[in-house]
Amino acid sequence: MTPVEFFTDLFNPELAFLPKALAVAVMSSIICGVVGCYVVLRGMAFIGDAVAHAVFPGLAVAFVLGGSLVIGGTIAGVITAVLVAVFSQNRRLKEDSIIGIFFVAAFALGVVIISRAPGYAGSLQQFLFGSITGIPDSDLYVVGITGLAVLAVVFLLHKELVAISLDRESARALGVKVFWLDLVLYVLVTLAVVISVQTIGNILVLALLITPASTARLLTDRLSVMMVLAPLIGGASALVGLYVSWSWDFPTGGTIVLVLTVAFLLGWFLGPRHGLVGRLRRGRGPLIDDTGALAPADGAAVLAGAHANVPEPVDGGRA
Amino acid sequence: MSAAVAAAPALSVEDVSVELGGRLVLQQARLSVDKGELVGLLGPNGAGKTTLLRTVLGLLRPVGGRVAVEGRTAKPGRTALGYVPQRHEFAWEFPICVADVVMTGLTGRLGLFRRPGAAEWEAVADALERVRMSDLADRPVGQLSGGQRQRVLVARALALRPSLLLLDEPFTGLDMPTQDLLSALFVDLAREGRAVLMTTHDLLGALDACDRVALLNRSIVAVGTPDRLALDPAPWMSAFGVGPESALLRVLKATAR
Ligand SMILES: Nc1ncnc2c1ncn2[C@@H]1O[C@H](COP(=O)(O)OP(=O)(O)OP(=O)(O)O)[C@@H](O)[C@H]1O
Ligand SMILES: [Mg+2]
Fold this sequence. Notes:
Chain A: It is a multi-pass membrane protein. The complex is a heterodimer of chains A (about 325) and B (about 260). Chain A is mainly alpha-helical and about 325 residues long. Chain A is built from 14 helices and no strands. The radius of gyration of chain A is 19 Å and the shape is globular. Chain B is α/β, with parallel strands linked by helices. In chain B, about 35% of the residues lie in helices and about 25% in strands. In chain B, a hairpin with a 1-residue loop joins strand 9 and strand 10. The complex binds adenosine-5'-triphosphate and magnesium ion. Adenosine-5'-triphosphate binds near residues 21, 25, 43 and 47 of chain B.
């Protein structure tokens, strides 16, 4: 299918779900791209993963009760974010253990709840891997307004979020409320995840947070540039991904993630400063990162981890 | 050394006891630092040096005693304290330039939702000038050497124009010329009327540069001018838990002459 045909399909009233899916996918990618910059720079990928799993019981409850998925997911995600923030104040257990405990428990709860609903397997698959059909008009507004709110908070608290990311103790000494800002950041991550789950799916949403921001980090040493590049990369990948998935009838979430990954690899090889090509041209070894910038291997490992987490119940079990 | 002019010293730690994880880490520590004075805080690993600094910053609440900065109890964000943490506490891989890092020193003062204006950028420029890093203002911090990073952290603390500066092991991992440069800077900062307290494991450097030296091991074992303390091995043996034949005391004896 040519891009022109894709374009006409977007305006075909019979295919009204398609422009809606495009709008939601692009908005989600933009918001995840911006919030993802903090996630990547603070090495919070695990928290992003946790929240992505934790919204699941909320989605399940909303689905069973026939309520709004976005609201259900937000409530569950925020509860988990608060629990993680509070429990991780106790230094006796490391943060990742706490998160591990809560997100697996939340995910398990979601699986149990949704198994009560009729059409269990189909809806589970839809949650886990995303779907471009069946987005209600109201979600368009919810996603748009939530997205604007998230961006506004990021804009207003940017200075503080940077200060606590650089050096928590000094920020605390300066009177910055570190705990509350952590909480705000977790909630922002939750909101970004929740609005993206519909199209991308629960399992793959982590890529939307991590990959565009990591790609942007490879291309620049300036945070402001990174926070513009990441949503651009995310939004463009969502557009291309949806086009490819529509043309070849691929699953949308997976296709978008693969496009994001291709963009990341391009950045890795062709990036001006940290890219392999640039390094070779300057006659330096490719593997030593002079600025200690995010080692791209980290991002890749995170994503590999996310895929390793794919649970099996889609077609097995009680379906 | 420089006499206290004002009634209250810039920093006074009055019989402070601090508990961490249920153990008494500081026990009735007592120390005061005057304006214009550079004081070195020496002690073995785990002596409580960092704990003392964090208590002064108001990050830890003492179970006994009181910390007063210019006569008033210090509160995070309320008191203009400059804090220079150990270099590894800072996320150097963050994509941010030197001047922007120094600006984060003003985050608390600016308050929520306010953006830095001309006055703030001027304070940042002054602080960078002070540590002679103005020409690197636009450099990403990830590309700096250890000595340059240390100076960035000092500039960030100076942006607030504090009357009391706390430095945690500023010399660790730096070569001698860089250490010299930094201790000259700290002496200058003190002479300009600030009170400067720094922890260090570099005994010789501290004895050379500081106006007074305090030996800490859970409580302050001894305080005095380098000349006087270097002559008396007893407090060093007790603070560092070493015998009379130790290298530490030999070095000390060498400096005393
Ligand atoms: N969060 C904590 N919980 C419990 N104990 C702690 C904690 N932090 C430090 N301690 C203990 O308090 C004591 C003092 O620690 P502190 O970090 O102040 O020592 P220090 O003098 O700065 O040592 P170093 O020279 O190694 O930096 C140590 O015995 C340490 O084990
Ligand atoms: Mg220490």
